Prior knowledge:
The protein has one domain (2-442). It has helices spanning 2-6, 8-38, 40-64, 67-76, 83-107, 112-115, 119-134, 136-151, 156-178, 189-212, 230-255, 257-260, 266-303, 306-342, 346-378, 383-407, 411-442. The protein is mainly α. The longest helix is centred in the middle third of the chain and has 38 residues, at 266-303.
Amino acid sequence: xxxxxRNRELWVLMLPILITQFAQAGYGLVDTFMASRYSxxxxxxxxxxxxxxxxxxxxxxxVIVATAPILGKLIGELRHxxxxxxxxxxxxxxxxxxxxxxxxxxxxxxxFEVMRVPDxxxxxxxxxxxxxxxxxxxxxxxxxxxxxxxxxxLALPVTVISVxxxxxxxxxxxxxIYGWLGAPELGGAGxxxxxxxxxxxxxLMLAIYLATSHRYEKVxxxxxxxxxxxxxxxxxxxxxxxxxxxIFFEASLFSLAAVFLAKFGEVTLAAHQIALSITxxxxxxxxxxxxxxxxxxSRCYGARDWKKYRQLRSDALTISxxxxxxxMAVLIIWRAPLTALYTDNPAVALLASQLLLxxxxxxxxxxxxxxxxxxxxxxxxxxxxxxxxxxSYYAIGLTMGVWLAHVAGFEARGFWFGIVVALSVxxxxxxxxxxxxxKRLMSPEG
Length: 446
């Protein structure tokens, strides 16, 4: 209760963001669950497709969410008149990124041979990816508008619309995966159609709300809409590209595992996707803390309010540790029932349950590293964090995971052990960087 009273602002911003993150992660959860009920083949195709488009989306997301600390710093410096201009430049950048990555995603099946995607999965996976690509411009613009709203501490509207989106995804998946009500029965590829429709629908809902609600009257994002500014977009990219690369490293460590594990067969792929789907939901808890922390730390940074910053950092680490212990308990007690929700295949359920033990092992370090990363983004220090994540996730975690899986013969278990090591190294490196930045900024010269 003391933590709740002492930092009410953090909780008020974090909780709606948490629900939003659960809702957005719920798209993948619904896709995985409904595809698994169609067939193991279609689940494998969705898993492979998600392993390709999710890292691209997370990179794009990382670049765009730089909008939040930039706007947060402006608010901390009491430069409210510039907030709308910053949001407009973010929208221009998001549109370009959304179109560009939609093209890349549509062409990604050309690389299936290099990625050693099994022949029998290529057609279904390619169809799924082309459908998802249609929604990429929409999800990019939605992310920009979301960052704009959350930077103003108005996270609840985004939360409501995100929940509507995940609820809409369920009947749309039923229509296009199973062919209900005369719709085309597309199997796993139908999840891509549903995702694209949801992406455009949620964008439309959020844009209409932000344009009409009186709560945004002083900082309307569409009023006197400015042309693209190379200077301002360059500032967003300078901060956002390292964030995007860092998030890409972590996301691809998990989702590209599907590509590296494809040779071990459909059972391994299905088990990996189930374990990943469950842990992705749990990851939303520390991630939401980090997103809220980035906004609030950026305000402290702009106002040079280091006393409030220290309290935020201390409370965030305490809360994230307690929440991580809770998720560890969930994984130990409920891992078997959770996997049973996805599949009735004994082999798939057993392997997925075993992989969740590795997730249990990294809950604490994962919570700490994502909170440290959120703090560094709020302090506008992203380039060093990018290199630290490159070392942690690729040079150490991915290398070790691939070797253990393919050379040492531990298959999926070996890869997940590499993930545990990667997150542990990242937590140490990012924690050290936070201390260095604190000393530099809080010194008389800072």
